[in-house]
Design goal:
With 208 residues, the chain is an alpha/beta fold. The chain has nine helices and five strands; from the N terminus they run H-H-E-H-E-H-E-H-H-H-H-H-E-E. It has one domain: 3-Layer(aba) Sandwich (Beta-carbonic Anhydrase, Chain A). Strands 2-1-3-4-5 form a five-stranded mixed sheet, with helices on both faces. Helix 3 links the parallel strand 1 and strand 2. The protein is globular, with a radius of gyration of 17 Å. The relative contact order is 0.16. GO terms for molecular function: carbonate dehydratase activity; zinc ion binding. It is an enzyme of class 4 (lyase). It catalyses: hydrogencarbonate + H(+) = CO2 + H2O.
């Protein structure tokens, strides 16, 4: 059932269910385009209460509100190339959890990821990209190195390992997130998106 309340779901499991239901509609082509009208816009003007923090890759094919069939005020979206984590990113996610009281963090990776491909190439060739792109590759490399042999045959192994690595980092390195995980107020889940199919599948998680 489509959630219409401004408050949204109260539990991590209910929030994840909303995400997955929306993705199913996107895959089938039966999208509802919820919360995209003038009434919703007006209702949200005083305050927001998103039901999920969506931390995903910046890839242009990964527009969160579209692939999960959601609208205004539903998702607190944070995106970086390769969903790499830095202080500003972690602060943004913690804001969504601590200030907006969002019950779910979803980490969204995908196949054919440029950041993953660049990292695998750097491992194989021993050459990192120029400029600040090097920082992205170096952060992704921490998760990819342990599976580099398998990833050489199947890059999706690296994609999913990097999602799991990011989920684990958020759950254990942020005291704000860890505290809410411990008392059941928040969950962290990893999702892997297939570009051609439009589908997501779960890749690890905590509290959901």
């Amino acid at each position: 059932m489509l959630e219409t309340s401004l408050e949204g779901p109260a539990t991590p499991s209910a929030a994840l269910e909303l995400l997955l239901e929306g993705n199913k509609r996107f895959i089938s082509g039966n999208r509802l385009h919820p919360h995209q009208d003038a009434d919703r816009r007006t209702a949200l003007a005083p305050a927001q209460r998103p039901f999920a923090v969506l931390f995903g890759c910046s890839d242009s094919r990964l527009a969160a509100e579209i692939i999960f069939d959601r609208g205004l005020g539903d998702l607190f979206v944070v995106r970086t190339a390769g969903h790499v984590v830095g202080p500003e990113v972690l602060g943004s996610i913690e804001y969504g959890i601590a200030v907006l009281d969002t019950p779910l963090i979803a980490v969204l990776g995908h196949d054919s990821c440029g950041a993953i491909a660049a990292t695998l190439a750097a491992i194989e060739q021993g050459i990192t990209p120029a400029g600040f792109m090097r920082d992205v590759v170096e952060r992704v490399m921490l998760s990819v190195l342990p599976v580099r042999d398998q990833a050489a045959e199947d890059p999706d192994v690296a994609v999913e390992e990097h999602v799991r690595y990011t989920v684990d980092m958020l759950a254990h390195r942020s005291s704000v997130i860890a505290e809410r995980l411990a008392d059941g107020r928040c969950g962290v889940v990893g999702l892997s998106y297939r570009l051609a199919e439009g589908s997501v599948r779960r890749v690890g998680g905590f509290g959901v």
